[in-house]
Amino acid sequence: MSGFNYKPLETPETIRLLHLYPGQGYERLSHCLHHVSLYEDPIYDGLSYTWRNLIVTQTIVCNDVESRTTSNLYNALYRFREEEQGVLL
To answer: For the whole model, what pTM was predicted?
Structure first.
């Protein structure tokens, strides 16, 4: 399984937003990362977390690529996910 590679941000006013796809129960977490200019005044929810144990990981799908993330982030994304619509973080 390959790791995920970030694309560089285009400008200092650009941020990465995570679009968490909807899902139910224990379906695999899937999302995409995309760049958005702060001048577009994007609406999103903020997420703050700590990496904690980098050894304990879970599999997620980011931009159609399987990768590993900490269990701490996985659990946070799982709690944010909605069944019917995507969430922007």
So the answer is: 0.85
